[in-house]
Structure formats: C-alpha cells, structure tokens
Fold CRP/FNR family transcriptional regulator.
Amino acid sequence: MLPTQMSEARAAAPAAQSPALEAGRQRQGRLWSNLKEVCDLLHIPAAFSMNADELLFQHVQFKTGQRVHTIGQPFDTLYIVNSGFLKTVLIDEFGNEQVLSFPMKGDMLGVDGIHSRHYSSEAVALSDCDLILLPFKKLTALGRVHVELEHMMYGVMSRELVREQAMIGMLGALSAEARVARFLVSLADRFAQMGYSSKLFNLRMTRHEIGSYLGLTLETVSRTLSAFNEIGLITVDQRTIGIKDAEALKTLRRLPPSRSRSKSPASRKAAAEAPAAAPPVQLVAAV
Amino acid sequence: MLPTQMSEARAAAPAAQSPALEAGRQRQGRLWSNLKEVCDLLHIPAAFSMNADELLFQHVQFKTGQRVHTIGQPFDTLYIVNSGFLKTVLIDEFGNEQVLSFPMKGDMLGVDGIHSRHYSSEAVALSDCDLILLPFKKLTALGRVHVELEHMMYGVMSRELVREQAMIGMLGALSAEARVARFLVSLADRFAQMGYSSKLFNLRMTRHEIGSYLGLTLETVSRTLSAFNEIGLITVDQRTIGIKDAEALKTLRRLPPSRSRSKSPASRKAAAEAPAAAPPVQLVAAV
DNA sequence: CGTTAGCTTGAGTCAATTCAACAGCTGTGG
DNA sequence: CCACAGCTGTTGAATTGACTCAAGCTAACG
C-alpha cells in the first residue's frame, strides 16, 4: 500500500532509520521513558525536583501503514512521537481522506479525542514509528502532583491550536505556490529542529497526501515543485528535496490579496514572483 | 466603522439585545459568575460538591468594535462569552485580516495565548458583549483543587481543536457553495443551541468577514447567498437570513472530489446539485 | 443631503482543476 | 527472469470555479 522503507536507506533520509532510540530504556523487554525525557521531547523546560525514573511511560512501535488510532475509537491515551513519521486524517462521508497534519518527533497525537472521549481523527504511520504512550487519566492525575506536567499539557494543546490557526490562515489566504513553498520551509525547519539537514531531505508523504494537506490536487503540487525546481529555488528528485533558496520560499506570496492597502497597481506583477534578489541558483553544501 | 446596533432591534435578532444577563450577579457594582454558571455556559456537566459562591469570576463588557485582546499582547487571562458576538482574526504581514472564528455565547477566547504567553490572535467585538474573565493562573490553581474544572479546561481546548480540524477539512476539500452552506447550517445550529430561532436570524458579520472566514471573496459569498435564495434554500435580506431547507444545505457538496472511489462517472453531475428529493421550496414556519 | 460602508450584480480573466497520457519503480507470478 | 499490474510522479491540454475589476444600489450617519 505505502512505499517500502527502501527510501529510508537513501542518502539524507532522517529518522526511523536507526533502531537506536535517543530516549528510552529497556525494562521487561520494552522501552520506557521517564518524565524528563518526555518533556525534552516536547521542548518543555522541565525543572524537575523529583525522582526521574519513578514514573515511566511505555513505548509502542508501529510499522509503516499501521493505524495508531482510528476515528470513533474510544479515547484513553495520548501519544508522543519519539521517532518516525505519521499523518493524521479526517475521513468524509465518501471515504475521502483529508490530511490534517504530518506529526513527527516531539509531536503529540490524540488530543482531539479528549473532548468527546473518542478520537475524531485517524493517525497512520508513514514510516516505522516509535511512540510513547501517555494514558490520559494517569497523566491528569500526575498533573495534579507535578505542576510542570500540567503546564506542559496546556502548552502543547495551545501550541497545537496555534498551529492549526496558522493552517487555516494559510488555506484561506495563500496561493498554491505560496502554500507549497511554506510547506517546504516548515518541513525544513522541523528537520533542522530535529538535528537533521534542513537543506536536503526526503518527503515521507505522497504528492496526493501533500495536496490533501494543502488543499490542492496532486498535479498542482507536482507542477509547483517542478516550477520551483526550474526557478532554482529547490531541487526535486522524486521524494528527495533540496532547498536552494529558503528565503525566497519563505517570502513567496500570492499577488497582493484583493483589498490590500497597496495603492500601486504596478507593484503587483513584481510581488508575484519570488524576490530572487540574489543570483537564483545558489548551490548549498547539503547533508 | 462597524454597523450600529440598530439591527439588534430587528425581529429575531438574538443576544446582546437584553441587558438582563442570564448568568451573573451584582457585587461591588459589577457582575460576577460562580463556577457552576461558568460550567453551564460551557456545557460542561459539573457535579460540584463545593460552595458555589465561594469563588467568583468577574465580568467585563465590550462595545461593538472594541478589541478584547490583540496579537502579541501578554497573555494572562482566558475569556468566556456570556453574551454578544465577536470575531477572532490573524493579521498577516500586510495588515490583511484573516478571520479564524466567530465566538459567541459559551465559547472560550484566548486559549491560543497559553503556549507562547502572548495572544497569537486578535478578538474584536462584533456587537456589545459581556465576557467572563478567567485569570489563567487562578484557573490552573483551582483546577488542582476541583478536578471537574481541570477536565473542563482540557475538554474545551480539545473541543476547540476539533472545531479547527473541521475547519481545515472544509477549507481543504469543499467548494465555495458547500462552505457557505455549511457556514449557514453551523450558525443555525449555534443559534438553536442558544435557544434562538435557527430558522431566521441576523448575521453579525459582513460579507467580507464571512469571505475571509471561508477563504472566499465577499463577492463569491454574496453571489452564493443570492443563488441559494433563488433555489429556495434560504431567504436573504441584507443580514437577515431565513433557512428554508436545512437538509439540502447540510448535504450540499462539491462534485465528487477527484480520485474518489465512485467508479460511475454518471453519478457526478447528479451529486453536484442539492439532493432535493423533496420538492425544493418547502416553506418552514419561521420564528 | 452628501458621504461612506456594505451589498449586489455583471463581464472578463486566470489559477487551479479535471482529464488524459506516459514514464519510472516495485513487487508478483508464471 | 521477464512480463505485468499498480502505484507514484510528471506533464500537457482543455475546462471551469472563483477571482478581479467595475458599476450601481441601499441604508445609515454626520
């Protein structure tokens, strides 16, 4: 169904490639993480005055294509991605998937299930994954004892909300090119954050999934990537993307969206193109 | 700047019309609500074993056009809408507004500020409003004592997240007509939930704001409403909307989105139109 | 009573989609 | 081992939904 993990072995393919997980230890033949490791993963500054290894959280592994949770399934646990790549999707009345996010290391899954006590989305592994289980009841109970944990929860949920707001803003206001450009930039940022190269990486998802995520068709995504390639903003070879001009990608926009304050009609065409002030094709030592 | 409150006096105009607030009492010349009332507003079943009036939350009033909070402003309090209508917006680098939501009675504001400790959106009153202040620190402290309160917080944040996910799905997958149709239906539902007529109501926002919210131009919104009016799905008179065929609005969709599983190419055109199985214009006793 | 903001409607345009053909790669099975 | 089936990705051509531009109308306000 999904591509094999062959691509994992390719150059510059980050994550999920090594069975040596950064966080986690063996116990009873399984991997467990303590609170400190969980907080580190979430980028939450945790000033813990507690015995770290007192409470441990279990890991679970999922293979490519496996579902972590499905829509309507009773909610009882949150997940944190320790390694690997996933997608979360909504499924409409015709069975069409709408991709909501591409969770990776440090992201939390399952928050949408808290309210109705049932997951409202589906999470699918795009590569082999290692997730940390956070039983929700246990978590809230702990939150009452460890204030930092509670703050972590609020912080993560709020962060997720802000992320989705930005997504709504993007879908509502940006052109196809701008969406694809920002998608690439945000992916690059994520990779950088995880310690991988932000200049050369492999996409974990199909054009179809990217299109669904960005509210575009796969053809438009493909064409846009090709166009960026021709302009020299990126290099494309199947799922291997090289970022050549991150600045241009970041600032790429729609032609001034309608009733903008800019009175000059002449500035339009100019603003539509990438502000390639510097020579377009500037090779960057990748990997 | 914004329309006057004249429209409030019109027929079937809900909320903000009466100074008699359902929740709240006078104390020191101001309105306050207890925890029970707050929970009721949020539709959170609160089985409280506590002295209700022990902890009170202060109300604040905002006039039409006033800002509740602005982008970048330090975060310290959440708000619950007790009455009135608002919009929350993102503002891009050119000053263009992107509407994110239209909060009304029972909705919570400010959650996006928790993560970065600064509000990431701006909330503007579209009518005179009465909001309940929830100082965040106080709230989390209380949450540790009253478990229900903590659950309320998680529940509300999760609910908000699910709502935004649905929004993303809508923006990513639906046609202009379908978006407008669902917008009307969701408004009607909200009004019904608040005890107002779901068959006849006044929009609180301009076409421009609706367009921004739905990722469309104001012209498209206007045209679509006119079209629905002609088909007999609704009646339109400026901001007064009458819902005539809620079912048709609910099921109105885009022509099967591309690679859908449906093999039959013949079914396309049919599905594009509203499934008006029943005679199209079916008058409903309104108000 | 003129001004302004909001709404409607028309005409033309264009960005993104739909439809279609083809190429590359993988896994399968004869 | 090679042919074949399926998925993925690319590219072209034609179509169209939504946008832009523009004009005019209404209601509210100073």
